[in-house]
Specification:
By secondary structure, the protein is an alpha/beta fold. The protein contains 16 helices and twelve strands.
Length: about 400
């Protein structure tokens, strides 16, 4: 984040004072409750991919951007901040065009629908959002049969894909062709595990040779790029269309964007309206995404580095143990010994550190790393955790 943006945001989030090394005796809940004139609290959250802006923070940021003349309204999703956001994502992903959607569910659905054409079969991961979390909308509303691949795994192999294609071609009712392969990466149901890139390249190259279209559910793609160092455009280059969430990484209150070839995107615009995705205004979503987009990968990398230092610091206390989830973009397990997990979480919350609900079966918490960790030093955060036991 450039210095002007960082300074502005820290002012908004109540963290304008620089963090120095604090002794255990000097550090307390009052430190976290300290507020600037804006009246906004500084919160460190381990619950999401973004900052988790409060309504007050979100509103203050919109006011700031409006006062600086950095928000132009759209009209029915045309022009203004929405068009600016679409152009920025098209550039980031190196696609001809991009289109705003109110939800990722609709973006994924219409991308698969248009890519499939007359071939009404699509291969997806069994653990994917498209297959598990959309109310079977692709099947029910577009008549496309989703063929689920590799249950319990994030990465499907080329061999897995070939097996499903052979199965489709040998049906008793006559051969049918797979029209689309959709890949989600990172995959939420596998704790943000990133799809193996070498396997992704094999599958997409095979699909190109076979005339099968390709869609990437990249809701958290920028998290993957921060973790792997592979640019979003390099991932995007393997696919016809790419969906990105506006709220998961970029702190918008809602929204999504779909990028792809201009003609394909243009063909989806009327479908977006038919399926109820038209809105009078989306500038409150687009403007915030625009603000955070360019600096996200840099800030997420800083947060991952800070997390590594924080984990090292708290593991000096035998009550804490960090378990790393293989190939996850930003999820870890925190094991806590000898503490009431609910009470521990409550004490942290009182100090403006937010954890997810405790996992009593294994005695700890899932932790998501995001840029809120850049609001405090790892050493100071470790003190808060130790004092909350």
């Amino acid at each position: 984040m450039n210095e002007i943006k960082r300074r502005d945001f820290l002012r908004l989030s109540g963290a304008a004072a620089a963090f120095g090394m604090a002794s255990q005796s000097a550090f307390s809940a009052d430190y976290f409750r300290r507020k600037e004139k804006s009246g906004l609290e500084k919160i460190v959250n381990f619950t999401g991919d973004g900052l988790g802006l409060t309504p007050a923070e979100y509103s203050a940021l919109l006011v700031k951007l409006a006062e600086e003349g950095k928000i132009e309204p759209d009209y029915y999703l045309s022009g203004g901040a929405v068009e600016e956001m679409e152009q920025k994502f098209a550039k980031w992903l190196q696609k001809e065009s991009a289109l705003f959607f109110p939800t990722g569910t609709l973006a994924n659905h219409l991308a698969i629908r248009q890519l499939s054409g007359l071939e009404k079969k699509a291969i997806v991961q069994a653990e994917s959002h498209v297959y598990m979390d959309t109310g079977d909308c692709v099947q029910r509303l577009s008549g496309i049969n989703l063929m689920a691949c590799t249950p319990e795994k994030a990465t499907m192999t080329l061999k897995d894909v070939e097996s499903l294609i052979d199965m489709a071609a040998s049906g008793a009712g006559g051969a049918t062709k797979v029209g689309v392969i959709s890949i989600e990466s990172p995959i939420r149901r596998k704790y943000e595990e990133i799809f193996d890139f070498s396997e992704m390249k094999k599958i997409t190259a095979f699909a190109r040779r076979e005339g099968i279209r390709l869609h990437l559910d990249g809701a958290r793609l920028f998290c993957a790029s921060a973790r792997t160092g592979i640019p979003p455009a390099e991932y995007s280059s393997l696919f016809d269309t790419v969906y990105i969430s506006l709220y998961k990484c970029f702190n918008a209150a809602s929204g999504a964007v779909l990028a792809g070839p201009q003609k394909l995107i243009e063909s989806i615009i009327p479908l977006r309206k038919i399926f109820g995705g038209s809105m009078l205004h989306a500038w409150p979503f687009a403007a915030v995404a625009n603000y955070f987009m360019d600096d996200f990968i840099q800030e997420q990398r800083r947060a991952l580095k800070a997390a590594a230092s924080f984990f090292k610091a708290i593991e000096k206390n035998e009550a804490f143990k960090i378990e790393r989830i293989p190939n996850s973009a930003n999820v870890f397990k925190l094991h806590v010994k000898g503490a009431d997990l609910t009470e521990f979480r409550k004490k942290l919350s009182e100090k403006n550190v937010k954890l997810r609900s405790p996992q009593e079966e294994w005695g700890g918490f899932f932790m998501k790393i995001n840029a809120s960790l850049n609001r405090i030093s790892p050493e100071e955060l470790a003190v808060v955790f130790n004092e909350s036991l």
